[in-house]
Amino acid sequence: MEIIKTDCALCVNCCGIDCYVENGKLVKVEGMKEHPASRGLLCKKGEKLIEYEYSPDRILHPMKKLPDGSWQRITWDEALDTIAAKLLQIKKDFGPEALALYCGSVAVEHFEASAFLQRFKAAYGTPNFISVEGGCFRARILSRQMTFGRYTIPDELEYSKLVVVWGHNPEESMKPLGKKIRDLAEAGKLELIVIDPKRIPLAELGMYLQPRPGTDLALMLAMANVMIKEDIYAKEFIEEWGHGFDKFKEHVKQYTPEKVSEICDIPAVDIKRAARKMATTKGMSIYQGTASLDRQITNVQNHRMLGILMALTGNIDVPGGWIPFLPFFTTDLRLPVDKAKKPMGAEEFPLFYELWGRQVPYGQSMVMAKQVLTEKPYPIKALISSAGNPAVTLPDPKKFKEALKKLDLFVVIDLFMNETAELADIVLPAATFLETTAMGSYTVQGNYGMPFIQLRRKVVEPLGEAKTDWVIWSELARKMGMGEFFPWKTDEEMLNMMFKPSGFTYDFFNAQPNGFMYRSKVITTTPQKFRTPSGKIEIYSDTLAELGHDPMPTYREPSESPVSTPKLAKEYPLILITGARKEEYIHTQLRHLSDLRALVPDAMADINPATADKYGIRDHEKVRISTPVGSIKMKVTYNDGMKLGTISIPHGWSEANACELVNSEHLDPIMGYPEDKAILCKIERL
To answer: What pTM does this model have?
Structure first.
């Protein structure tokens, strides 16, 4: 029996796994103890990798939809020839910008899938590469770059003395991180502050603040008020490196703990206590949820303000604080495109597209359906979706499905016939990560502060006629006469090309089965240069000011709230939080696996028993949850950790789809992210 060391790409953690293979078949999976982040830990998803790999629901052959809606198996040649001919005709009739390419979250863990998609995009000439990052994580990166001139991340947990877990439940969504936080806190080696409308289990181990959903920025500003007023901020550091601090100092005077207490519904004494603890601890780090602070009206300013708090406390470029992200350098597969052709959303949200001349490769996916339907500023006639399920994950799924009907061609590349694939004209079978040789674990640096990387080794051969993403894009390009841009024939050739800027080779990676640290992590005692226009930490952002946005973080009420829309709140008196995660699933994936579905068979809404009692709702009763734009049905579960007057619902369930409750027109004004963490709603018995 052969043991193949690789990493698990079911989610962004990319935990190390040992795969046992017998006669070419995967028979056992264990956690890889040598992996520096996961350390042998395997979550419930990882425990079911065999069921995942050999699921009878896998798409194993190219399929095309017939006029009656049924599916017919076709050859790869027929599939690619059909797609190529249609795309070439669309390019001739409408221009290359009429093609949009969508990439789901899986491609975040599969670097090559995204890289080759971008190369195909440029070879064809379209500016429209859109992805889940139109509503997840990219705003965090851009906001920190806007503030620090670089992407800044938490250092390794072992070096921290205080961790603030803000809008994050890592024991469900990032198990290795959650376990490490718990272990260190229980051992007395780490202090905790948890800030969340839902009291998560980690809150039992430290200080806990429970804000009204959508008011996080007011709380951050009140903390800054306390630090400055009580003169406990890192004065020398801020005076040397804080651009616009004098203006900010005056700005935060309005955010007193007493005033913000009324906004956030947190006692002023608790706001002061948390602020003092953060300001007086060297080795303090803030860990935020993947999208909890992104999907608010103050999205960008939330991220900027967290960075400003880190700077005010002197925890930038210090052990246990925030440190520079150390990228693993790879070949940039992007090709020059006509700069006159901007991606969708670039006009409305220019900072999502370009910051200080640095162009982001993405268009804003949140405007995709609208542009397809209106054909403004130009028509979109074809869409290829890779490794995603936008029919479930984008706000207002009905509008997205309506938009698909206007397309001349819709192609899906995926493993399973999910809700989006069911709507396609042609579906192409992708290989799983277990059937792929690729660059693995590169997300460990951002998640855990370790510059670690590992070769993702092919464990088994692709089932049926499934192909790896980079091969699919290369073969389609050759069918379209773009083969010169895709000369690589083997995984080894492709990876040697990708690794070249780093100085490593495929053979070197292959000789390190446990992975390796690709760079030495250096924590300096003086700040590294901040690559902002001022050369400093931009507390005051001239960039934002020039575009008409608030130059300093300024609290805004959610678009819907008891304060901003009191009349609406009378009809919809509760506050809805969407996006709750369960360890068993990732986004819309894995619900077809029977073992996992047995553990979590239904979507469940968390509600405080006292709130439920007010509406006569019993535990595990099925209810209707409605917002001004839609309604869904799901069961409720009592959770006395929920803030009174709030409901939390999970993400990724097609039969109880949270996105149907989200107003697709409520977008943050800077990056265009949807607002779904504080929505007015009502609940009714069925």
So the answer is: 0.97
CA gap 497, 505 in Å, rounded: 9
Question: Considering only CA atoms, which of 482, 499, 583 is closest in space to residue 48?
Answer: 583
Which residue, 470, 455, 469, is CA-closest to 502? 455
Strand segments, DSSP code E, in 144-211 are 152-154, 162-166, 191-195, 207-209
- The token duo for 558 is 């959610």
Q: What is the DSSP letter of 363?
A: B
Q: Which two tokens stand for residue 599?
A: 């553990």
Identity (one letter) of the amino acid at 523? I
Residues 6 or more apart whose CB falls under 8 angstroms from that of 292 comprise: 166, 167, 168, 579, 677
Q: Which neighbouring-strand residues pair with 454? A: 440
The band of 524, judged by pLDDT with boundaries at 50, 70 and 90, is low
pLDDT in tens, 385-409: 999 999 999 999 999 999 999 999 9
- Structural tokens at position 638: 């009592």
Nearest one of 433, 601, 470, 608 to 53, comparing CA atoms: 433
Residue with tokens 């009592």: 638
Phi, psi of 638 (to 5 degrees): -65, 135
Calculate the alpha carbon distances from 589 to 22, 233, 354, 593, 623 in Å. 27, 44, 32, 9, 24
Closest CA to 251 of 234, 228, 274, 268: 228
How many helical (H) and strand (E) elements, i.e. helices and strands, does the chain have?
25, 29
The tokens for 481 are: 């006469």
Burial of 517 (0-12, 13-18, 19+ CB in 10 A): middle
Contacts of 41 (CB under 8 A, 6+ apart): 15, 31, 175, 176, 179
Residue with tokens 């595990």: 620
d(CA 62, CA 8): 26
**CB-based contacts of 622: which residues, under 8 Å, 6+ apart?**
633, 634, 635, 636, 686
3-class DSSP state of 649? strand
Q: What is the pLDDT of residues 619-642, one digit of tens each?
A: 999 999 999 999 999 999 999 999
CA atoms of 635 and 620, how far apart (whole Å): 5
Euclidean distance between CA atoms 73 and 321, whole angstroms: 54
- In contact, 10 and 3? CB cutoff 8 Å: no
% of the chain beyond a pLDDT of 90 = 93
Tens of pLDDT, residue by residue over 160-174, are: 999 999 999 999 999
Average pLDDT, the chain: 96
Give φ, ψ of 570 to 5 degrees: -70, -35
| Six token digits for residue 23 | 């006669």
In eight-state DSSP terms, residue 167 is: S
Per-residue tokens: 663: 């107003």
Q: How many Å apart are CA 364 and CA 120, to the nearest integer?
A: 19
Exposure class string for 613-636: b at 16+ Cβ within 10 A, else e? eeeebeeeeebebbbebbebebeb
Residue type, 404: L
Asked if the peptide bond before residue 377 counts as cis, ω within 30 degrees of 0, the response is yes
Identify the structural domains of the chain with CATH numbers, from first to last: 2-53 (2.20.25.90), 63-134+334-440+455-505 (3.40.50.740), 152-324 (3.40.228.10), 566-685 (2.40.40.20)
| Average of per-residue pLDDT across 660-686 | 98
Distance CA 388, CA 99 (A): 17
Rounded Cα–Cα distance for residues 284 and 154 (Å): 9
226: left (phi over 0), alpha (psi -120 to 50) or beta: alpha
Distance in angstroms (rounded) separating the CA atoms of residues 124 and 672: 26
